[in-house]
Design goal:
Blueprint (H helix, E strand, L loop, with lengths): L23 H15 L8 E3 L3 E2 L4 H13 L4 E6 L2 E7 L7 E5 L9 H9 L19 H18 L8 E5 L7 H8 L3 E6 L2 H9 L5 E3 L2 H14 L3 E6 L2 H10 L6 E2 L19 H10 L1 H25 L2 E2 L6 H7 L11 H10 L4 E7 L4 H14 L4 H13 L7 E6 L3 H14 L7 E5 L7 E2 L17 H12 L4 E6 L9 E9 L3 H24 L3 H10 L8
Parallel strand pairs: 3-5, 5-16, 6-7, 6-10, 7-9, 8-9, 10-11
Antiparallel strand pairs: 1-2, 3-4, 12-13, 12-14, 14-17, 15-17, 16-17
Helix pairs in contact: 4-5, 8-10, 9-10, 10-11, 13-14, 15-17, 16-17, 17-18
Bound molecules: nicotinamide-adenine-dinucleotide (NAD).
InterPro entries: Urocanase (IPR055351), Urocanase-like (IPR023637), Urocanase_C (IPR035401), Urocanase_central_sf (IPR038364), Urocanase_N (IPR035400), Urocanase_Rossmann-like (IPR035085), Urocanase_sf (IPR036190)
Cofactor: NAD(+)
Protein name: Urocanate hydratase
Length: 553
């Protein structure tokens, strides 16, 4: 029986041991599709997160996907093109059940305006990174990444602790909603600005945000008090970041850390220009795109100018992966890229060892399955400080959304070991059901994005998209259950290509073989990608873990 979903009552959370499909592999993927809608931002319109990231092209396509997953045999492969199923073909039982290519537009045409036109004609949709691949697990999917970034800054700038430190950010949407909880878990006093009161209310309802302040003065007073007491807290404020950031700067207040996670990547469907209501913006999306783009860009110029001012005054300022610097530079802020990107600034040494956002979902819908795996992780990796610290913190602080899930930054070998151990627990009947494994597309070998993931690579290979394409081919030949190639849509059109993968640990030997090959090869390619770019950490990893890197020259 599905479980009730208070946030979206029409999208209950899949659970239980009754299969609608012919096996757990198919059923697992079906539950993940249901789950991305149950934790999504606007499920009635199939929107999952990041303004336009969709689970399927339209409702007819969605129904056809559900029917295919329900009816298909294990020796068939469902082929999905930009959120619409186009083929159910005979392959073999070790082939992926689902392959997808979402939103890949030929280079010279890969522009926001072309994407919007193709979308209007119903020919394409953007899958975000994890929406169209049915891997999204709500704000919990990025929370460890956000937390680790804050902690890296704590180590770099603040003696290892954010107690008594003020973080200013914006965006309380699907991904940005992780910020208040991550900031509080890191010990800071965090202020999160969002223009949409419903988003602030939603984050408060799920326990990610503690308070919503009625106005800026109150919000700043609450932050001030928490900073003085060195008390961790999260405060939401309804307002436009393009107004609030400059106003805070004007008052001479200098936060310790400043970032932003509005959907600045999309000037039409994401960012809300200052002075406009949400309804005004909606009204302009079809017929006033040019006006809306100009207004959004003008506001982003003010927003980023304030971020640069904070940087000048000594704040640690970074771009949190929303293309806000790129938009500002287009708008004339020549030094927008003085703001570093979070990947290069804080996380690259981890990615160079293919340590990244690995995650698992309890397909039974039972929280006890995640608790059992938490124990297993602590037992298997007692010396991994990042992961043991995270699991302890997460089990205490991170509320589940949708299917119970956990994220943990594990690397090469560790992911495979854990998944195989979990597969054994499923086989032994120690869990209530199978577990699905996946990872963010923001992973070592999985993403080319010259303004986010691969900015300023050591060898200048930032814009080369061969790596995610190779990853997808490798994962397909390594028997993964679902493999997807995504490129950017909306404002991200032309900016990125990524690869996603999902596997179902169903407790079988065949399942173990799939997990072993796919997870090992995925992280192998990740390490190789960075080794090829000249990163010492990767060469070390290759030697220590005997990864099959072919070194030329
Ligand atoms: P979302 O569309 O669900 O939420 C964006 C939020 O920004 C909304 O709540 C909206 O009301 C708010 N907003 C828009 N304009 C505003 C303004 N001017 N002032 C204040 N609030 C404003 O998007 P999301 O899923 O939360 O993603 C946010 C951004 O982060 C996207 O650009 C996304 O691509 C990026 N992202 C980064 C990472 C990462 O790893 N760092 C991961 C996923 C997504």
């Amino acid at each position: 029986m599905p479980k009730p979903n208070p946030r979206h009552p029409n999208y209950p959370i899949p659970s239980g041991d009754v299969l609608r499909a012919k096996g757990w592999r198919q059923e697992g993927l079906l539950r993940l599709l249901e789950n991305v809608l149950s934790v999504g931002e606007d499920p009635d319109n199939l929107i999952v997160y990041a303004a336009l990231g969709k689970a399927a092209r339209n409702w007819a396509a969605h129904r056809a996907i559900v029917k295919a997953l329900t009816d298909m045999d294990e020796d068939q492969t469902l082929v999905i093109q930009s959120g619409k199923p186009v083929g159910l073909l005979r392959t073999h039982a070790k082939a992926p059940l689902v392959i997808m290519a979402n939103c890949n537009i030929v280079g010279q045409w890969a522009k926001a305006e072309v994407f919007y036109e193709l979308q209007r004609k119903g020919l394409i949709c953007w899958g975000g990174l994890t929406a169209g691949a049915w891997q999204y697990i709500g704000s919990q999917g990025v929370i460890q990444g956000t937390y680790e970034v804050f902690m890296r800054i704590a180590e770099k700038r603040f003696g290892g602790s954010l107690a008594g430190r003020f973080i200013l950010t914006a965006g309380l949407g699907g991904m940005g909603g992780a910020q208040p909880l991550a900031g509080r878990m890191a010990g800071a006093a965090i202020l999160c600005v969002d223009i949409d009161p419903a988003r602030a209310a939603a984050r408060k309802a799920v326990g990610y945000l503690e308070h919503v302040a009625p106005d800026l003065d109150t919000a700043l007073a609450m932050i001030d008090e928490a900073v003085k007491d060195k008390r961790a807290t999260s405060i939401g404020l309804v307002g436009n970041a393009a107004e609030i950031y400059p106003e805070i700067a004007r008052r001479g207040i200098v936060p310790d850390i400043v970032t932003d996670q509005t959907s600045a990547h999309d000037l039409v469907y994401g960012y809300v220009p200052k002075g406009m209501s949400l309804d005004q913006v909606k009204g302009l999306r079809d017929d006033g795109q040019g006006q809306l783009m100009a207004a959004s860009r003008a506001s982003i110029v003010e927003h980023v100018s304030a971020m640069l001012e904070f940087q000048k005054q000594g704040s640690e300022v970074f771009d949190n992966g929303n293309l806000i610097r790129t938009q500002a530079r287009e708008g004339g802020v020549a030094n927008a890229f003085d703001i570093p990107i979070f990947t290069e600034a804080y996380l690259r040494p981890l990615f160079a060892r293919a340590i990244g956002p690995f995650r698992w979902m309890a397909l039974s819908g039972e929280e006890s399955d995640i608790a059992r795996i938490d124990d297993l992780v602590l037992q298997m990796f007692p010396d991994n400080r990042i992961v043991t610290n995270w699991i302890r913190l997460a089990r205490e602080n991170v509320p589940f959304e949708g299917l119970p899930a956990r994220i943990a930054w594990l690397g090469h070998g560790e992911r495979t070991e854990l998944a195989l151990a979990v597969n054994k627990l499923v086989a032994a009947g120690e869990l209530k059901g199978p577990i699905a494994f996946s990872r963010d597309h923001l992973d070592a070998g999985a993403m080319a994005h010259p303004n986010i993931m691969t900015e300023r690579m050591k060898d200048g290979s930032d814009a080369i998209a061969d790596w995610p394409l190779l990853d997808a081919m490798l994962l397909t030949s390594s028997m993964a259950d679902l493999v997807v190639i995504h490129s950017g849509g909306g404002g991200y059109a032309g900016y990125m290509t990524s690869c996603g993968v999902t596997l179902v640990a169903d407790g079988t030997e065949a399942g173990a073989e799939r997990l072993d090959h796919a997870l090992t090869n995925d992280t192998s390619l990740g390490v190789i990608r960075y080794a090829d770019a000249g990163y010492d950490e990767s060469l070390d990893e290759i030697e220590k873990k005997s990864i099959g890197y072919v070194r030329v020259g």
